[in-house]
Each structure stands twice: as structure tokens, then as C-alpha cells.
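worker-03 picked up job from queue 'complexes'. Input manifest follows; two sequence lines, order preserved.
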Amino acid sequence: MRVALFITCLADAMFPEVGKATVRVLERLGQVVEFPAEQTCCGQMHVNTGYQKQALPLVERFVKVFSPYDAIVAPSGSCVGSVRHQHSMIAKRFGSPELVQQVDPVAAKTYELSEFLVDVLGVTDVGAYFPHRVTYHPTCHSLRMLRVGDKPIALLRAVDALELVELPAADQCCGFGGTFAIKNADTSTAMLADKMHNVLDTGAEICTAGDSSCLMHIGGGLSRIRAGSKTLHLAQILAATREDTVL
Amino acid sequence: MSTPVMLGLPTMPPAAPRGVGNLRGEEKFPAAARRALADTQLRRNLGKATTTIRAKRAQVVAELPDWEELREAGRQLKVHTMAHLPEYLAQLEAAVTARGGVVHWARDANEANAIVIDLVRGKGVDEVVKVKSMATQEIGLNEALEAVGIAAFETDLAELIVQLGHDKPSHILVPAIHRNRAEIREIFLREMGDVDPALTDEPAALAAAARQHLRRKFLSAKIAISGANFGIAETGTLGVVESEGNGRMCLTLPDTLITIMGIEKLVPRWQDLEVFLQLLPRSSTGERMNPYTSMWTGVTPADGPREFHLILLDNGRTGVLADAEGRDALNCIRCSACLNVCPVYERTGGHAYGSVYPGPIGAILSPLLTGIEDNASLPYASSLCGACYDVCPVKINIPEILVHLRAQHTETYAEEHRVPSAEASAMTAAAWVMSNPKRWTLALRSGRLGRVLGRKRDAIGEVPLPLAKQWTDARDFARPPKQTFRDWWAAEHGGER
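worker-03 finished. Artifact:
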């Protein structure tokens, strides 16, 4: 199986540790991971902000770069959601007939990290060790677009020494929403305030999730109020071992 | 958006007209939301009410093993009806007429209001009682009647609270959701001439005061005005679903009944109610069955109203039907489940949307009815979290329509302006950079400026620049890394940089 890492533009630029952790987990499980350097972005930001036509070259690039692989793994529910649910829409509206034919097969083999680990590799215990109190925020697109369900929870439960505490009102959006966080900054912040309140109520040191974008938002809020709790991507927890801790 | 073609000529059905009705707000959503967010009483009232209704709905929906099949049946019935709307409307008109009713067609809010005014004047009365109705709120009927000296009395308890409070509804189902008991007591004491000054804020006492106030109106009114939840093409039957019984009083006591129904409220057959009368109460009030379901067909001698008028309202709906990507918004049965689960609505309330249709469904329906230019900020009033789509009893993919309307907005702007907006330029530039890995790699390295900004705390605090300020007002920005992922990979694995 040829496995490609789709790093996502955000993790590439801002959170390289998430990418390194994803590679580490997959290699530990015996996968050979390739990183096609021609990749850039899935185009979700453009589509969701109303610039569908501008997303076309990004969709074309994604399809061209990742078609040769058997599985494409990304540490983001949101970007995988865009690949699965928006790429065919963009292709049908602006793309060539060839692109329309190509998007769905590529989307079908594009996986969010927890889906790939649990569904494709059939693994829940990835051999991680993380001696901390953790709460899990199921990001909206993982939860409702991809329906990842309890897969991330199953992975976290199998982590040695990890204490998992349930997040109240977990299914409520954190308020990120891409450019929503800028265009409706006040409403976004009000949603963030409630999410932070719930995170802090758990007494967890770490709030984890499968999306760097939501974590950037929640983590940015926690950092601003010097809360003492912080955010860490699911991949980073799964990559941690006794020899190689992340905190 | 594609332009529909009729008889070889491109035509666009008209949008809901300006200057009448309540589909447009006076300010953009972010500004209206900012004020609502600062209202602590409103935040508490809404948080409490939406959390309660959400939990009730989730409980009664979980009881039905075939809920997903019901949703799919509801969706298919609506899609089928919309695809055959002209035939079914003609069938409805024939059936209502055959049973002694009179059918009127109103292209827009102005025509509908004028028809009602003519009918009321024709009876020589200056008072009407009203059943809770979204269509009449949409067209601003109360305001239009008031302007010609006709008093309209709302009889739904929540609508009465809104009317007495000189306020506007803020929820489709629970129009006074933004008010608590103490506020309602104050409104009653101030506005109900005949109220007992010792009135308490106990729900039973408040309901009793309203009942006493309304009873006289029911007995004296000659004309009632209602909306309709359903119109059945096959039989010409109209239906109203309500919880208090005040609706039934209006539908049965006065001599004349005038019903205003949006043309999309149609269902083909009587049998179809089996689906919708299961979907609607569980989705809206979280009840297994609706308390008062009133159905009437034309007029019946010596029983109920002697005259029945049905006004079929377009007001932009044909235009929505012509929009292939937006038309599913017409399938809405006004249950308001999407409002109750929406994290934006829960915090801002309904008034921030400026339209009688607030929340996720309002964020698509209002701009679809008025044209995107008049409600351009609404499709952005969502984090696209998808909770609305999950609960919709007829499976309207609201997030997808929101994204469609955002595209319609930017594309309309681009067509009408020679100079692109700053945002469009930025998005085009981003696409140009991201469509080429070399340009993208170079762009990533410019993040080094951020490292300087963030060196003190390993995070970036407030940055007083446009856009950056919108983020850093409440959130630190992560300090960019020394090395991007792709640079790390290249260093580890060799290969070109």
C-alpha cells in the first residue's frame, strides 16, 4: 500500500509537529509514508468563503498529486471533509469532464487520521504513552461530515497512562469556522468562551482534537487567559512514547 | 447562478419587494450580533430555552426507530411537490373552490396585504383576530392593517407578548423566547388595560391573564386571519398546528376566515400528513403529538366560518424555486429545530438576523427570498458546524446552501464592480500562490516575521492591524515554527527544497 501524507496547508505552515507526529505514528505501525512535495491546499478556505472558481486549480492539483497513491492520510477532519464533499461540487461546476471522473475515486481513498488507523489498519492501540489528563473535542467536520464517531476516543483509551475525561457539551462548535472567526469575530469569541469554560471545567491539562484549525482557535483563547491548560493534536498524543514525550 | 429560460427568453422571477414586510434588517449581522451578545439577560434566556428544547427534541426523536426513514420520506414528498408545484396549486385551487372557498393569488407582500384590507373593509369592521402565522409576519400584515386603521389582535400567547411589548418575534416557533417570566409580567402590567395589578410571574398566572384578555376578542371578532402549516392539493384542506387552542378559537368562532399560505406549504395528498404530523411536533416542541391540529375544507353550513378566503402567496418563492442549488430551502416546514441547535442563534438570538426567519434556515431563506444583495451578511452568520443539517426533519442541507449563497454573493459583487474587493484580491492571490508548490514554499518562509512578534511569550498577542485584530482581540496567535513541515521533510529525506 502506497500511503501519502496530505499535511494540509495550515499544519505545513504553522504546526509542523502535527505532521511529524502523524508520520511517526504511521511508521511505528509499519507504514512507509511518502510526502509528495507538489501538494498545497484542499481549497476549503476558498469554497467556504465564496470563491469557488478560485478553488478549481487547488482541486485539480490535489487530484493530480494524490491519484497515484492507495491511501491519502491527513491529520484534519475538516480538510478531508472538504475533499469528500466539496471537490466533486467544484469539479462539476468548473472542471473538465476528466476532473469530474477523477475526483470521487481520490476522495474515496482520502482518510482522516483516526479513520485510517481504525478502519484501514484495524488498530486502536498504537503503542503510545501519555501520562496526562486529557479531554477530547470532537470537531464539527469530524463529527458531522465524516462521522468518525468514537474512533478517536477508542485510540485515546488505548494510550498508556492517559486519563481521559469527558468534555461537557462536546458536540457544540468551538466557534472557529474558518473566516467566520474573522467576519463574525464577536459571535465566534462568544462560542469560544463557552468551549473554554467546558474545557477548564474538566480539569484537563490537554484539550485534544483531530483538527489543527479548531485547536489553534481554542488554544489561542486558552493562551490569552493564561489558563494553564493547552491544546495538542490527537496525532501528537498518539506519537508520544516513554522515550519520546511531547510535553 | 444560472438564469432560467422561458419561451426562449431569459427571465428571473421577482424577489420579495423592498419597503414592505419583515425580511430585511436595518444593519448587517455582525453589528446586530455584537449588541445582542452584550445583553446578559438575553444570553441567559436563550441559553436556557434552547438547551431545554434541544434536550426534549433529542429524547423524543430517539424513541422512533424509523426516524431516518421518516426524514427521507418527508424530504422526498417535498422534493416531489416542488417539482410539480404548478399542477398541485391548480388542484388545490379547484378543490377549495369546489368546497365553497374563495382563492386569491398574491404575487407579493403588497398584493397579499391589499387583498386582506379589501376583504376586511368589505365586511365593514375595523378589528381582526389572528392565529400565529409566519407568512403574515413575513409580509408585514399587522403594520399594513394598522396603517389603514384596522386593529389586528395576536392571540398566540407568545405573539401577544411580542405585540404588547412593541417588539418583534425572535424565533419561528417561540417568538418571545428572548423574554423571561419577569419581563412578561412587566409587559402585561404595563400594556394590558384590564390586568390584576397583583399579577405574579407564575406561568399559570400569566397564562390566565392572557386568557382573560383574549376571551372577549374571540367572542366579538367577525374576522380571523391565519396562516397554514399545510394545504392539501387533493382535498383542498388547510391545516394549522398549534399548542394553545387559541388558533382553533379563531378558526371556528368568527364568521369570516382569511388564510394566507406560502405556495410552498402544499402537500399532494391527505395521506402525506402521516409523515409530517410525526416529523413536525417532535422536531419543533419536542412533543410526540401535537396538542391542537385543526383542519378545515372550504365552508360547512352551520359549522365554523361562513366565508373562507385562501390567499396563495408567492413573494419571491418562484425565484427560489428557479435556483437549483437553493430551492431545497422551500422544503422547510418551519419546525425551528435548526434554530434550537445552532450555536450562533443560541448566542445572538433572532433579532440579529433582521428577518422574521432567523437562525440557519433564515440565513438561507431570507437572502433567497429578497435576493442576495439585501441580506448579504446572513450566509456568513454560520460556522458551518452542520448541526442544523443533522436535525432538519426534511434533510435540507443548510451548510451547502450557505456556501452556495456565499459564492452567489462574491460572484454578484464581481459582476457589478470593476475593482475587485480586498477579500477577492486576497483570495485570488492565495489561490495563485497555492496552485504552485514553489510559490507556496516561498510564501511559507515569510512566516519568519511572526517569529519575531511572538518571541516574548512564544505566542503572538494583540496585533492592532485590520484582520489580525479580529483574531487577536480574544485569541493569541501561535508563534510560527522555525521550520515548516515541508522544509523539515526535505531536510530529513533529502530531495529538492
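worker-03 released lock.
The mean pLDDT of chain B is 94.
Residues 373 and 412 of chain B are 8 Å apart (CA to CA).
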